[in-house]
Amino acid sequence: MNLTRRLIRFLLRHEDAEGRGFEFDELFGEAAAGQGSKSARRSCRIQFVLSLPGLITNFILWEAAMLKNYLTIAWRNIVKYKGISLINVAGLALGMACSLLIFVWVDGEMKADRSQPKADRIFRLEEGDWADLQTSYRKVLGTFPEVEKFVQFSSWEKPVFRVGDKLFDSRELVFADDAVFDVFAFTFLRGSPDSAFADPYSLVLSRSEAERLFGPEDPMGQTVVLDNTFPFTVTGIVEDPDDFHLEWRAMGPFKSLPALKRRPTFLSEHNDNFPTYLLLRPQTNAAALTEKLAAAINAIRGGDGPRKFSLRPFRDIYFTRDAAVREKGVKHGNMPLVILFSAVAVLILLIACVNFINLVTARSSSRAKEISVRKAAGAVRKNLVVQFLGETSLTVLASLALALVLVAALLPSFARLTGEPLEIDWTAGLWLGGILAVFLFTALASGLGPALYLSSLEPVALMRGRLGRPGRGASFRTVLTVFQFAVATFLTIGALVVLGQFDYLVSQGLGFNQEQVLLVPLKGELKESPQVLRARLKEGKTFGETKGVFKQRLLQNPDIRGVTFISQSPGELTNTNTWDVRGEERPMKIMQTDPDFLDVMGLQLVEGRDLSWDRESDLGLSYLVNEEAVPFLGLNPLFGETFQANFGRSQVVGVVKNFHFQSLHRKIGPMAIVWFDSWTDTAVIKVTGTDIAGAIAHIRNVWGEVNPNAPFSYAFMDETVGRLYAAEARLGRILKVFVGLAVFLSCLGLFGLSAYIAAQKTKEIGIRKVLGAKASEIVVLLSKDFSRWVLLANLFAWPAAYFITEKWLQGFAYRIRLGAGPFLLASASALAVALLTTSFQAVKAAAANPAAAIRHE
Amino acid sequence: MKLLSRGEEIILLAVWRLEGNAFGISIRDQVSDATGYEWTLGAIYVPLDKLTRKGFIAKSFSRPTARRGGRSKVLYHLTPNGREALREVREIQKALWKGIPGHAFEEET
Asked: Among A317, A519, B19, B45, fewest CB within 10 Å belongs to which?
């Protein structure tokens, strides 16, 4: 009964709604009196249900009439203040487009590794802080009943691919156990996961890799020859595994590796190179299993004492940074960056909302008459709130439409900016939800404040026009404007610091020659693994012969000043050897190269002598160390005391000035340089003169003669080194855009607000001018308020920016000092931009004819 | 001028009959008695509003009644326009029935 009554009251929309409600009650009362309560209740319900068509018709007619009125008023307001409406819509649209784009990016980041259905049972086995394990552990892993399947990956092979008579570099080629398709799910376009690895010489390609190798041809069943020796058959095509943290474009079976590497013992060797994933049975206690695994592995490991092992849940891998010095081909996300960008998205949207709020409340006096008439006619506060919220939603809806157009148009540029392929599935629930969330957030954030404020105004005061004064609500707007400029200043400081640090990283250099230096990855016959080498020695060829010929032929070109071979890119040295100095372990970063290294790289010898081609004993047994290594090793005497290293009792013969063999994120540690050119895989070629293209052509020719069975490729050293800071460069680029947007939006709001205030003060300005005020004084009058606000904003922006940027800079071993520069520059430019914006209006107001102003009503 | 619908005609006639005491409930009772089946209040209100908008009936407020906690009832009155509209309907009906003997249906009863 009560429910019925409430429903009726809700549906009754009429000027006599109250009376009609009573009539229903009366009717029900009569029924109750006549028939007893039970049947009365029934007849009441019948009565109600039968009344529904009439009630609902009435309801709709009534609401439509009101809605029509609201829409009319909203439209009139939009049209009447075209400029301000334009600022509102444009500002909100920009803010929303920006948030939506960031949403797309964040969504892409969060999606990584989410598509694996067995993810909660998959763990990566890690040893200490190394993610890559030995193949010898395979014996143990299979013996645990808790381990349903295990997969080892190898990403170290870089064979040359031959398809027909065309040569290709292999790209992101991995090898994995047959179980890989049971543990991980990939979308097979052709072939099937069950049979893909039936044959040891089978190859599964990603779609893009298949296109690269085969073009429009059907790749299934075709042959790819690896290293001109091993024919692999394409047995499957999968969708590009972009959201999988281990990057791969082609995958072969792990069981082919012993043959491929010409090492029959490969599957039981002790090289820590292979990421290992376990699929556990349901309800396995991972912690307990870790203990057992560790014990079993340590039992067979032998050598240097027990190691610690741990299982890392699959889903935790993408966003970890701490793990594994030794991870190859693993993509990582950056959680702080995701949080930072999400925060920026919200902040920019808020700036846009603040514009809206400021402009609407500032205009409140112009709505005053309407509000008071509505109130006098009986509108309660709720009606007004609904009306204004609805009006805001209308503007926000228009902005949303514009924002979506912007998103569609800007997505490709944004994808370039972030350096990631971004796509929008316009029908996906998450995306639509994101749009809805952004819409609701914007509508509520920008609508609720003004709605509550406007509906709170007293009708009597409104009627008398008390609101005509600009003072009302000004403090509220001040707070919001201060907030806006605080955010804009904060972002500006952040961008300045990031760009400053980036410039520093790039300009600092790494302490060696980077200009006009080419890196040529060695492949085919030029890349002589020890095994191939041994075979070659049997054929009667001498040590490193092909490399030697290559080098000699290169140096025939007068523009090529020097050639050396190295084992790892000079900015990313991670190879570690452990030396035994008087029984103590000394882990050293090792660069394997040849005696021309110092000369080509332009490194300085501080003490001792360089490695020499003429001393047979220098090969593998004489080391150059950097300054950092001298106290670390504690040799006495430095040149003379021997120690056990990779190739036997060795000694140090020279000291090299410290240089950055890793990016500036890391401190320079002890490292050593040794002549051992059979393990080198990159040629470093120093070019002089201006004819670089000619030099490259020469290199290509020599390559074609010496090493015809491998494709030639090259890179510039400075570009390779620059890529070490790709993340910083990207952050700087993105921040620049955001800063621009934040400042622009803040100014847009300020522009509207100052236009409004100038209009409000028209009369005051007119009187002042008549009394003799100069134009400059008028400009000051209108600008000084804003300047105060902008300066106040610094108080909030500075500490926040200092805290965040200092935290970010701590991630670098070598960094700029955080001085006052960026802070002052950001604040000064914010002030300048604000003054410029407001003075435009101020000058206009000051130049106006005072007579017209005073007559203004 | 548009003709009244049958529902409007019935309501309008009820308001006329109840002159001085025509409000939601009394109109409903009157109409229900005359037609022989239960009208709902919702079905009364829609034509009432329409007639009000057309200017055939006007509203006034009764003296406050104790039954409604001191509030007034809304009472409906026929306006001259309403009366004219009824007359018109009646004229047309007369014209339509003209020539059909009054006893045409009587055989059936």
From this structure: B19
Q: For residue A729, what are its two tokens?
A: 């460069």
Residues of chain A with Cβ-Cβ distance to B74 below 8 Å are 16, 19
Query: Within an 8 Å CB–CB cutoff, is residue B42 touching chain A?
Result: yes
Chain A contact present for B28, CB below 8 A: yes
On chain A, the residues whose CB falls within 8 A of the CB of B73 are: 19
Written as one letter, the residue type at A498 is V
Give me the domains of chain B, ranges plus CATH numbers.
Answer: 6-98 (1.10.10.10)
Query: CA neighbours within 13 Å on the CB side: how many for A783?
Result: 22
Domain ranges across chain A: 2-79, 122-316, 335-505+728-855, 524-710
User: Which residues of chain B make contact with A18, given a CB cutoff of 8 A?
Assistant: 71
What's at B26, amino acid-wise? S
Instruction: Give the burial string for A199-213 (b: 16+ CB within 10 Å, else e).
Output: ebbbbbbbbebbebb
Scanning every residue of chain A, which has its alpha carbon at the shortest distance from the alpha carbon of B50? Answer: A58
Banded pLDDT at A812 (limits 50, 70, 90): confident
Cross-chain Cβ contact B43/A14 below 8 Å: no
Mean pLDDT (whole number) for B66-88: 81
Q: Is the pLDDT of residue A234 over 60?
A: yes
Q: Indicate if the pLDDT at residue B109 is higher than 50.
A: no
> What are the tens digits of pLDDT across the range A495-536?
888 888 888 887 777 777 778 888 888 877 777 655 555 665
pLDDT of A464 reads 63
Contact criterion met (CB < 8 Å) for A57 and B46:
yes
The verdict on B7 touching A (C-beta cutoff 8 Å) is: no
Does the distance separating the beta carbons of A57 and B41 come in below 8 Å?
A: no
Which own/partner contact pairs does A703-708 have at CB distance under 8 Å and 24+ positions apart? A703/A520, A703/A550, A705/A553, A706/A525, A706/A526, A706/A546, A706/A549, A706/A550, A706/A553, A707/A523, A707/A524, A707/A525, A707/A526, A707/A546, A707/A550
